[in-house]
């Protein structure tokens, strides 16, 4: 793969004319040499997550970490930040944890360690094995590359192939484990229907949860469940803060919503799963968009302005039709 990329944009040496399945194409575009997630500006240069929206998000995760430590009856707990970006979330959580709680922090990311990151954070390419604590995956699974399937005019479910310029064509029929996954989790029937085959995400999540000796694993993403799958899939792109057509050339993000119910089922049956919206999860962690009492404006104007600003940030994190619609999958180990 390294020899095929020559111009630093994620394009292979053939100029992007070769047809590939979406999983392979996205893997190259996102994580290959010159790929999107390895670019100097990082993901934050193209889109904003809950972490970037407000420090209230990291503070809520810090409270969840404290609760996890209490469940484990320990004052030393691990925090594993999956898909850590440039370390924004793990940095915010470390700043928010109360004194007396010792945190062993791990940032799991395929990009290089950023300059100036807190030295307490261990930067690693895979989750550590056998730790006790909280594994938190904020918008990680949506960037685990997957293949795309589409029903042709004859009713055959086929892989979708793509070039680096975004052009698509039907490929070979979907068979084997991928076909079994579709039959169980995302059945297709009518011509033109599309689905993202989430099996690689199931496997990635099961491996991440399996790395914990004890504690809690949480995945946060735009997602869907079997009763409400979108009929034409969700694959899209982001570049410079705007949603764009998905083009696997390494210059923008490629993302698709996650079948989180399938991810939950991929973990050992004895690991119970809870699925809720970010709105409900954050409210349970003390993040509320309620306005401060107006009386505070006269007794302590500075505190009122500060509380009003926090309420606005909380409202964005929990908004319907926005970040509040993210799904939180939580599984205790």
Describe this structure in words.
By secondary structure, this protein is α/β, with parallel strands linked by helices. Helices cover 30% and strands 25% of the residues. The chain contains ten helices and 17 strands. It has helices at residues 22-31, 50-53, 55-72, 88-96, 176-185, 199-210, 260-266, 278-284, 295-299, 301-317, and strands spanning 20-21, 76-82, 102-108, 121-124, 131-138, 147-151, 157-162, 168-173, 194-197, 212-221, 223-224, 236-239, 242-244, 253-255, 258-259, 273-277, 327-332. Strands 4-3-2-5-10-17-16 form a seven-stranded mixed sheet, sandwiched between helices. Strand 2 (76-82), helix 4 and strand 3 form a beta-alpha-beta unit. The chain starts with 19 loop residues before the first strand and ends with a strand. Mean pLDDT is 88; it is low at 1-10.
The assigned structural class equals: alpha/beta
Helical proportion? Answer: 25-40%
Distance between the termini: 37 Å
Instruction: Characterize the overall form.
Output: globular
Taking pLDDT < 50 over at least 5 consecutive residues as the criterion, the unreliable ranges are 1-10
Instruction: Give the total of beta strands.
Output: 17
> Biggest sheet: strands, sense, closure?
7 strands, mixed
Give the radius of gyration.
Answer: 21 Å
Total helical elements: 10
Oligomer: single chain
């Amino acid at each position: 793969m390294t020899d095929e990329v020559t111009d630093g944009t994620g394009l292979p040496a053939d100029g992007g004319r070769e047809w590939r399945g979406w999983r392979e194409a996205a893997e190259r575009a996102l994580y290959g040499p010159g790929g999107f997630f390895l670019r100097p500006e990082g993901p934050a240069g193209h889109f904003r997550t809950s972490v970037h929206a407000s420090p209230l998000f990291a503070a809520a995760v810090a409270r969840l970490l404290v609760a996890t430590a209490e469940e484990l009856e320990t004052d030393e707990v691990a925090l594993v930040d999956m898909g850590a970006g440039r370390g924004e979330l793990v940095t915010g959580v470390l700043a928010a944890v109360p004194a007396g709680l010792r945190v062993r922090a791990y940032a799991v990311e395929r990009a290089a360690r950023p300059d100036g990151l807190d030295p307490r954070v261990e930067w690693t390419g895979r989750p550590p094995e056998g730790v006790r604590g909280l594994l938190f995956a904020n918008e990680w699974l949506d960037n685990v590359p997957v293949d795309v399937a589409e029903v042709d005019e004859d009713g055959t479910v086929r892989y979708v192939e793509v070039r680096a310029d975004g052009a698509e064509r039907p490929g070979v029929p979907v068979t084997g484990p991928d076909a079994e996954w579709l039959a169980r989790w995302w059945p297709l029937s009518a011509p033109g229907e599309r689905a993202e085959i989430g099996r690689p995400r199931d496997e990635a999540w099961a491996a991440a949860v399996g790395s914990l000796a004890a504690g809690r694993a949480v995945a946060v993403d735009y997602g869907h469940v079997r009763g409400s799958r979108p009929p034409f899939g969700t694959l899209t792109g982001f570049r410079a803060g705007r949603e764009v057509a998905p083009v696997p050339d390494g210059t923008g993000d490629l993302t698709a919503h996650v079948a989180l119910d399938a991810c939950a089922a991929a973990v050992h049956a004895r690991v119970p799963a809870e699925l809720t919206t970010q709105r409900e999860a954050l409210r349970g962690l003390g993040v509320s968009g309620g306005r401060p009492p107006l009386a505070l404006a006269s007794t302590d104007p500075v505190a009122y302005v500060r509380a009003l600003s926090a309420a606005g940030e909380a409202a964005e994190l929990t908004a319907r039709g926005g970040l509040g619609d993210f799904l939180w999958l939580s599984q205790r180990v």
